[in-house]
Amino acid sequence: MHVKPSLIAFQVALGTEAYWQGDSTSSGLLGLAYEALTSAFDGTNPADDSQQDPYSPLFQTMVSQGLSNSSFSLALERGTGGYIAFGGLPPVTGVSSSNLVSTPIQYLSSFSSDEYTFYAITAGLNYGSSKSASTQYIVDSGTTLLYAPSAVAKALNKAFKPSAKYEEDQGAYFVECTATPPAVSVSIAGTSFTINPADLIYQGVVDQNTGLCLTGVQDGGQGPYILGDVFLQNVVAVFDVGNSEMRFAAHENY
């Protein structure tokens, strides 16, 4: 018996030019956020982005066509690789629906809009014996580092042994590659998620003049602040679009 495969109605635009040509591992972003962040624009002039044409992005289209329930989840491995699961949880030992911590997705405060854009939540950053006030962060797998409020980033980087230094010409904090990071965790809905020390010194970026390594927590200025891969490598993150909430569980990533 032969079954005719069903056709999925979804248009895909193929780019002919790109600012970034890839790094032999990845070449772009899939884009699983909300419609407000889609980037199609009227006209044929690539330099003119004055008129945005929002469209239903991939995941929302999958949900509307009954190809997935309204959540997807992510478990990043340190370095490269990991899992993304549409409609369920990735096959990570010790993680189930019963031990996930929930928090609502929020409208991004820096956007004057009452629609969802990024996956924004309220979180706090703990380091050593200090705790920062909770503020809004974007959960974003497309960002490598963690970007915190200026005072928090400064105090946390000072807590490295020896202390990290802010390099003006680089616009970032660097530290001795063999330094000892402080104990760092992210507090979400009353639960603290520990960040592995391996994620707090970014060995892949070394200042050629000083021999120092980039730190995992950087100055986010006036925001928006971002929980990037430095955080996400330590959790399973569930993006529940249907219920407008995110759920997290600790992920032992060796």
Structure description:
With 254 residues, this protein is mainly beta. It has a single domain, classed as Cathepsin D, subunit A, domain 1 (Beta Barrel). Helix content is 8%, strand content 30%. The protein contains three helices and 17 strands. Strands 4, 5, 6, 7, 10, 11, 14 and 15 form an eight-stranded mixed beta sheet that branches. A five-stranded antiparallel beta sheet has the order 2-1-16-17-3. The longest helix is centred in the middle third of the chain and has 9 residues, at 150-158. The protein is globular and about 55 Å long. The N and C termini lie far apart (46 Å).
Spell out the key features of this protein.
single chain; 254 residues; mainly beta; Cathepsin D, subunit A, domain 1; eight-stranded mixed β-sheet; 17 strands; globular
Topology:
Layout (H helix, E strand, L loop, with lengths): L57 H7 L6 E6 L5 E5 L14 E4 L15 E8 L2 E2 L3 E5 L6 E3 L1 H9 L6 E3 L4 E4 L8 E5 L2 E5 L5 E6 L6 E3 L1 E3 L5 E3 L1 H4 L2 E6 L4 E6 L4
Parallel strand pairs: 6-15, 7-14
Antiparallel strand pairs: 1-2, 1-16, 3-17, 4-5, 4-6, 4-10, 7-15, 8-9, 9-13, 10-11, 12-13, 16-17
Oligomer: single chain
* CATH superfamily (homologous) name: Acid Proteases
Number of strands: 17
Strand % is 25-35%
Number of domains: 1
**What top-tier CATH class fits best?**
Mainly Beta
